[in-house]
Design brief:
Layout (H helix, E strand, L loop, with lengths): L6 H14 L17 E7 L2 H8 L2 H8 L1 E7 L2 H13 L7 E4 L4 H4 L7 H7 L10 H6 L2 E2 L2 E2 L1 E5 L3 E6 H5 L1 H11 L9 H11 L25 H12 L16 H12 L14 H8 L5 E5 L2 H5 L11 E4 L3 E4 L2 E4 L7 E5 L6 H12 L1 H9 L10 H5 L1 H4 L5 H11 L12 H16 L5 H19 L1 H17 L8 H4 L2
Parallel strand pairs: 1-2, 1-3
Antiparallel strand pairs: 3-12, 4-5, 6-12, 7-8, 7-9, 10-11
Helix pairs in contact: 11-12, 11-20, 20-21
Length: about 500
């Protein structure tokens, strides 16, 4: 005898099967998109940082079901506006981008990560983070509160055509009495900038420029970053143990006087240049030399805009020859981190998002893309085969980054770091514009730094700086008042 299922029986059976997951769609299986329908708010300081997050948005949604709304606050106003929100005891954001040199001002507003690592079984692949970034970018009062997002440092780039043309080599040797080569010292850099300026060193009839730089004082304090690599290689230090500023000592004065003297060898408008203008001039073959952020290398290797693909060199920022040894002091400048706001009402999902964007494969997508201007910060980024083959000599570019790590100098990572940097950068640019003498500019910077220290509290600042001074000594960075006079 035949038997027929009733409509009710069929419905009950199907309902049970769906409950068991047997008939569920693959992307709706148990555990998939566990935060479906949730949106978190992020805040960043540039459109290109917002773009960088867009590279992982689809994978993030497919994996977790989360969407990100990203607010952009322009760089010049970012620190003031975000800290104003935080210091009022709240914020509209869940995920916060920040400059790690400003950790002393931001850190208390961030949710510690380690309790959530335990609770949610998060894996941030900590052993894969470049050690110097792990040391200076992640902790507040000993607690892990952030992950790196952008491994900003400076390396040097040069156009091989300029340095390898036989005519150029002969002319340089005749004038300077030594062989033309990618500069290892500031003296060699300044000689090369002078030599190349104003003529067609590429064999053309064009009037090209001697070197590139970013000397605008606002934003992240560009001129400060270009000054401090010279300053530290000449034995400089930010403060002594009692918070007396040392920027107007012989090291600071020599560095700034050299920058002022060589201004004629740089492009017109260099005082207005932020990060991208000199990079553009390098990839268009208009300057033969530049030290700048490591994001420059991806533009150098991009055939859609670069005329020097396969014709570029990568190496250490120049240094000073002291007693027969070259002292290199490239800068951490200053990087970006990501943290979870302690005022967020969506801490759990934001922690999962922070883990996701920090994963080796997801973060690699971000740092490989030239349009993000985000730089490698994981060891696996530097070793990734597809990154090392991304463009001609990409392997040499990544090796130059890694070669720089042992010599890096961090910002003064103390409360009000952003204020100190901005005041000094303003005064440096005043000297470069010849509105003040180098001596007057640096002395004025010291007065401004003393005001900041007084306003923030001398003892508090002294204690914070004492910790950083100890860390810098461990990195081999100490004040040497005699180096500026003996440096070659």
């Amino acid at each position: 005898m035949r038997r027929f299922w009733s409509a009710t029986s069929v419905a009950l059976l199907l309902g049970g099967l769906v409950t068991l997951g047997w008939l569920a769609a693959p992307d709706r299986a148990p555990g998939a998109r566990p935060y479906e329908g949730q949106t978190i708010r992020a805040v960043v300081n540039a459109e290109y940082v917002k773009y960088s997050l867009s590279l992982i948005e689809q994978d993030l949604y497919d994996k977790l079901g989360v969407k990100i709304e990203t607010e952009v606050i322009p760089l010049d106003a970012f620190v003031a506006k975000t800290l104003l929100e935080f210091n009022s005891g709240g914020s509209p954001w869940d995920l916060v981008m920040f400059g790690p040199s400003n950790m002393p001002d931001y850190g208390r507003h961030f949710e510690p990560l380690e309790p959530w690592v335990e609770k949610l079984k998060l894996d941030f692949a900590m052993d894969d983070i470049v050690p110097v970034f792990a040391k200076v970018m992640l902790r507040y009062q000993g607690k892990l509160v952030s992950m790196p997002y952008d491994g900003d440092i400076h390396i040097m780039y040069w156009n091989k055509v300029a340095f390898e043309r036989p005519d150029n080599r002969a002319k340089f040797k005749a004038k300077y009495k030594y062989d033309l080569q990618p500069p290892k010292t500031w003296k060699q850099w300044d000689d090369a900038a002078e030599f190349f300026h104003g003529w067609g060193w590429d064999g053309s009839q064009a009037k090209l420029f001697g070197a590139g730089a970013s000397y605008k004082p606002s934003g992240s304090g560009y001129s400060y970053h270009w000054w401090r690599s010279r300053f530290f290689s000449y034995g400089g230090q930010y403060f002594d143990a009692n918070m007396k500023p040392l920027v107007n000592t012989a090291a600071g004065l020599r560095a700034l006087e050299e920058m002022v003297r060589t201004m004629p060898f740089y492009p017109p408008g260099v005082l207005l240049f932020e990060s991208e203008e000199p990079k553009t001039m390098l990839v268009k073959g208009e300057v033969p030399l530049l030290y700048s952020w490591t994001s420059t290398g991806k533009r150098v290797g991009n055939p859609a805009e670069s005329v020097i693909v396969g014709k570029a060199g990568f190496g250490l920022v120049p240094g000073a020859e002291i007693d027969g040894k070259i002292v290199n002091r490239p800068a951490i400048t200053p990087g970006r981190g990501m943290a979870v706001s302690k005022y967020s009402k969506k801490k759990e999902v934001t922690m999962k998002v922070l883990e996701f964007i920090s994963l080796p494969d997801q973060s690699l997508k971000i740092v490989m893309d030239a349009k993000t201007i985000m730089d490698p910060w994981r060891v696996s980024h530097l070793r990734a085969e597809k990154f090392r083959k991304l463009f001609p000599d990409a392997d040499k570019y990544l090796d130059a980054i890694e070669q720089s790590f042992p010599y890096l100098v961090p910002d003064p990572v103390i409360p009000a770091a952003d204020e100190y940097q901005r005041k000094l950068s303003f005064e440096i640019t005043e000297a470069l514009a010849k509105r003040k003498s180098p001596k007057d500019a640096l002395e004025n910077a010291v007065k401004e730094w003393d005001k900041i220290t007084e306003r923030r509290g001398l003892e508090k600042q002294k204690a914070a700086w004492g910790e950083k001074l100890h860390e810098m000594k461990q990195l081999g960075i100490e004040y040497h008042p005699d180096w500026a006079a003996k440096a070659k």
